[in-house]
Amino acid sequence: MTGPQQTRWWGWGESRHVPLTEQLEHLVVQAFGLDGSIREPVDLGAVALPASTLEPRARLRLEAIVGPAWVRGDTASRVSHSAGKSYLDLVRMRAGTPPGAPDAVVFPASHEEVLALLGVCVQERVAVVPFGGGTSIVGGVAPLRGEQHAVISLDLARLSGLLTVDAASLSVSVAAGTRAPALEAFLAEHDLTLGHYPDSFEFASIGGCAATRSVGQASAGYGRIDQAIQGVRVATPRGELSAAALPASAAGPALRELVVGSEGVLGVITGLLLRVRTRPAQYRYEGVVFEDFGSAVEALRHVVQDHATPDIVRLSDEVQTSVLLAGVEGGGRRAPLGRVLLRTRRGVLVIVGWEGQRDAVERRRLHTMTLLARGGGDAIGEGAGRAWAASRFAAPYVRDELLDRGLLVDQFETATSWSGLWPLRAAVANAIEAALGARGTPALVGCQISHVYLTGVSLTFTVLARAQEGDEEAQWLDAKNAASAAIVAAGATISHHHGIGLDHAEWAAAELGSLGTSVLAALKAHLDPSGVMNPGKLISAR
Ligand SMILES: Cc1cc2nc3c(=O)[nH]c(=O)nc-3n(C[C@H](O)[C@H](O)[C@H](O)COP(=O)(O)OP(=O)(O)OC[C@H]3O[C@@H](n4cnc5c(N)ncnc54)[C@H](O)[C@@H]3O)c2cc1C
Fold it and tell me: Model pTM?
């Protein structure tokens, strides 16, 4: 199929290679006692695949809808749709032992085809896992069959493109399988932008972003994806569900909100009406350094609460800053951010950015920078901002390199109030350090504030440790459970932007409460009475 670029089945990207910096090579050896040797993933042919359980009759019926070429059961198709891109997914894939695989991968080309496929899947008892870019980091695309006889991965890559543009209303409609870079390229032709740049931007689809309530790097300026969604078109096993696309409405609770974040358990989002913006004339990114994380957080809080928030905020604590310094986000042999920071000898780094018309960028920048300086920040200029921008999507490539060398590399994220930030950060870091320390694999735990609100922040924790060869899953599970338990105990959210998927389903039940969980379950039972849609995700089975 000619279409969007695919990720490697065992990692990120297709052909791009981001080499480790010398500092990171050094860190691998010095801090984690590894020898720097490379552990190659197994060959594709060595991946253990279960035999397909899709009945010939069901396959023929699916083929009759999309054409035989678009129902695939070859090894490459099944393997590449058998997992997302979490650390656990990659460890399993690299070892050639995914916990399962779809029995076939089906590529519909229209809303009508999706509706027809769902009808057949209900009758033939086939589970359906919607697959956008496959970048889920919480087990969202795990091919579970639940109570069904078989499971298909429904890859939405052919459901792609910009459908309508209403420039006067700053609204566009788009097919849900459109990848984020393709969408930005289409919009650029109309001098428009969505401004949605998650770290997984290169491969995420817009439908997947909507289904997971994704958040981009410029969330402070453009808002979360949910704030850009005006209307949705969904194919459910019960038929089409459409939420009218209006700028605002008081016609009861918003149906749209039932779909955004529903992670494919209610139906398949096939189209979206999005609020877009005029393309900025200027993009300006800068670095500011602070003595320590505490003073930086306070300065940032004043910036946000005085309505001086830039469009991009990435504030790293001391550990995270030192990892940046070593070049995790630097990419390339010379760690450009690292060089900038070395010159300053200050403790923590915040990247701030503004996008818009020139005079507005200047005015807003002055407001932000004045308050950051008042809080003790030293501006280090656009060099740091440029280095960040050049490497803003490099981290998952670097993760592949670190996995090659035998490291556990993962990220956990959450959100809490400004006053809850300190106890939460301490609790999560302590929990991860204790869990991995108990295994004799001490962890380096960094923290970053990457999304800010008047009332609080999102925290992302980066965890590095020596992977326990042969026992990676249990090691990761210890760390993940410890972090999740600490997050729940602190009253923070189990996910600010990665979603619930499989990995968080049990923990989300604690956050939603039993009545809240049963409301979601009732909604699913109504729209998907046979339970074919993405079994095991979002709503805990327990
Ligand atoms: C390296 C890395 C960095 C990341 N950074 C970010 C980040 O900065 N911000 C962020 O928010 N997330 C991030 N993520 C998580 C992930 O990229 C997002 O959740 C993204 O929104 C998923 O989009 P996708 O198209 O890849 O969806 P998929 O992974 O294909 O699917 C995600 C979930 O949505 C369902 N789904 C997909 N498409 C549809 C559809 N059309 N209709 C119904 N259900 C559907 C799937 O069944 C699955 O449950 C990151 C992930 C990785 C690996």
Answer: 0.96
In the reported structure, the alpha carbon of residue 212 is separated from the centroid of ligand 1 by a whole-number distance in angstroms of: 6
Backbone φ, ψ for residue 155 (5° rounding)? -85, 125
**Run of H or E including 491:** none
Residue nearest atom 2 of ligand 1, based on CA coordinates: 200
| Residue 481: C-alpha distances to residues 251, 316, 434, 504 (Å) | 41, 24, 12, 10
219: Cβ below 6 Å to ligand 1? Answer: no
Q: Which residues neighbour 64 within 8 Å (Cβ) at sequence distance 6 or greater?
A: none
Widest Cα–Cα separation across the chain: 70
The pair of three-digit structure tokens given for residue 423, joined into one six-digit string: 């106890």
Ligand 1 contact via 211 beta carbon (within 6 Å): yes
Rounded Cα distance, 115 and 535, in Å: 18
Give the least confident one: 3-12, 99-108, 316-325, 521-530.
3-12
Q: Is the CB of 265 under 6 A from ligand 1?
A: no
Distance CA 394, CA 19 (A): 10
Q: SS3 sequence, 30-65?
A: HCCCCCCCCCCCCCHHHCCCCCCCCCHHHHHHHHHH
How do 150-155 and 104-106 pair as beta strands? parallel
Q: Which of 12, 154, 155, 199 to mutate to test the pocket of ligand 1 (most atoms within 8 A of CB)?
A: 199
E strand or H helix at 16: none
* Residue whose C-alpha is closest to residue 231's, from 215, 214, 219, 249: 249
The structure tokens 């940032």 sit at 300
**The residue type at 452:** V
The per-residue pLDDT for range 258-297, each reduced to its tens digit, is: 999 999 999 999 999 999 999 999 999 999 999 999 999 9
What is the distance in A from the centroid of ligand 1 to the CA of 458? 18
Q: Decide whether any atom of ligand 1 lies within 6 Å of the 487 Cβ.
A: no
Residue 332: per-residue pLDDT: 44
Whose structure tokens read 């109309």?
190
The number of the ligand 1 atom at minimal distance from the alpha carbon of 534 is 47
Pair 120, 126: CB distance under 8 Å: yes
- The answer to whether the CB of 214 is under 6 A from ligand 1 is yes
Which stretch of 223-227, 338-342, 350-354, 407-411 has the lowest confidence by average pLDDT? 338-342
109 pLDDT tier (thresholds 50, 70, 90): very high
* 3-class SS shares of the chain: helix, strand, coil, % to 5: 40, 20, 40
- Residues 68 and 278: their CA atoms lie apart, in Å, by 42
